Every structure is written in structure tokens, then in C-alpha cells.
Amino acid sequence: MFRFVEISVEAPMRTSSLAVAAGAAIAVLVPSAAQAAQVADWQMDEGSGDTVMVDSSAGGDNDGLISEVVTGVPGLAGGDAYQFDGAVSWVQVPDQPSLDPGTADITVSATVRVEGDVMLDDSYEVIRKGTTKTKGGEWKMEIKRNATNPAVGKLRCAFKGVLPGGGTSLAAKQATSDVVDGRVHTLQCKRVGSTVTAVVDGKASSATKASGSIANAEPVILGSKVAGDDVLQGVLDAVSISIG
User: Is the separation of the CB atoms in 215 and 135 below 8 Å?
Assistant: First the structure.
């Protein structure tokens, strides 16, 4: 993609073999910056008893099935939100090619409030596509429990893909801030080129490592790893995915 930029020349350009009259306007072809596309936007404003999580992105084709989640609770980012019970709650979005970044940049965003003084599992899944053994790689946003203090949990972002030679590579970064404190936090996991960034309330922590191409046939899961495992205990709101 290119855009035309008009430049006014105030004086003859002596360094060029092309003479341009003073005050003339010339058109210069400038590459346009790539724009990320929002491929999913779940506002989680469904009311009590609703069973479908609606995708409000431009495509709008990534709705999810709600299971054992309390909907219609007061929102963290306006409107309503979802309450996960730490045991059996989850939301499943069917596999779509639009949810696989391949080698492109990807940003995953969410707003959470984690409840309880102690984490019930070694991690709480916020959102993921694939697992460690998934063919084609995985990406995920999770809250990882501290090994020595179960009352502390930190955002961890992980991107595992397939390298050009056929091997796999995991690029991950854990943030420094504790988010298991009963407060509202905005989280982001970003992969831009070979840089992985974990962002908590605007504070970023980054690491550099190639993660290859990520494209699998798995659904996107919110609030759980699989049914009954690593289930979030808390409230989740305003989850989105942008690729590009």
C-alpha cells in the first residue's frame, strides 16, 4: 500500500540530475504503515442466562459458547462482564483462520479482576488458542502463580510457533506486577516481530526471541485451559484480538 504526499520545493535541488523549479509541487510515493486488523472484540455485555458471547468486531464471525459462566455482572470497562468460578467456567470460540496470526504481529487485550487471597491452580488462563503440544503452535495470555507465594500471580504472555526449518520456538514474557489483589487490571500480550511484551496497566516488560508461525486448528478458550483446568477465579471483561 502506498499514499501520495505533496512536497513543495522552495529552491532548485542542485544535488539531483532532475531540475525542479522553485515553488513547484512534486508527488512522492511513500509506503503506508501497516494497519492491524481487529479480528475479535468481545465486550461481554450479554445478560443473565445468555449462552452466546457475541463478537462485535467488524467481521463479527467469532461468537463463543458460554459454559458455567455467570453473565450480566457489573462490568470492569463499562456495561456488563463475566464471572468465572475457578472450577468449571469457560467460553469456547470455534477455530477460524482469522484467529491465527501466522508470522504477523498480534495483540491480545483483556480487563480482569482476580478474586481470592490464594490462587487455586498454578495458573489462571485468560485466553488461549492451542496448548503446548498443539500442532502448529499456540498463543496465550495467563496469570501465573508465584512458586513460593500462592497469593501472588503475574501476567504471562506466550507465543510458540513453527520456525522456517520445521522446529518450534517458544517466546514468552512475564510481567513484574502482581494482579491477584482484587483490583481491576488491564492486560495486553503483544508479539511484534521477535519482541514479546507483557503489559499491565500500561507498564510494559519485553523479551526478544523469534517465535515462528502460529496457525492451528484449535478453538479459542477464555477463562480456562481445557474444561476444569486452570480456570480463572474472577471477572473478565472487554477481550479483543488484533492481528497485523
Answer: no
Contact 70, 107 (CB under 8 A): no
Burial 132-141 (b: 16+ CB within 10 A, else e): eeeebbbbbb
Instruction: For residue 201, give the C-alpha cell.
Output: 496497566
CB 99 within 8 A of CB 129: yes
**Model pTM?**
0.85
Amino acid residing at 227: A
In the chain, the domains with their CATH numbers are: 2-31 (no CATH), 37-243 (2.60.120.200)
| Residue pLDDT tens, the chain, 244 long | 434 344 333 434 333 333 334 444 433 343 334 578 999 999 999 999 999 999 999 988 999 999 999 999 999 998 999 999 999 999 999 999 999 999 999 999 999 999 878 999 999 999 999 999 999 999 999 999 999 999 999 999 999 999 999 999 999 999 999 999 999 999 999 999 999 999 999 999 999 999 999 999 999 999 999 889 999 999 999 999 999 9
